[in-house]
Amino acid sequence: MSVENKLYRSFWQREADDSLPRVEILAVGDVMLSREVGRQIIKHGPDYPFARISHVLSRGQVVFGNLECPISSRGTPVPFVQSNFKADPIVVKGLVKAGFKVLSLANNHIYDYGKEAIEDTVNLLKSKGIHVVGIGQSFTEAREPVIIPIADMKIAFLAYTSAHNATDPKHEYVAPPIDLEWLKHDIQKAKSRADICIVSLHFGYENVEYPPPECRKQARKAIEFGADLILGHHPHVIQGMEAYKRGFIAYSLGNFVFDNLTDKKRRSFILKASFNREGIQKIELLPIWINDQYQPEVASKELADSIFAKVKELSWYLKDGSSDKRFWEAAGKVFLSDQKRGLLHSIGRDGVKAVFMRLKHLRIFHLKLLGATILTQIKRIRK
Question: Does the pTM of the predicted model rise above 0.85?
Answer without folding.
Answer: yes
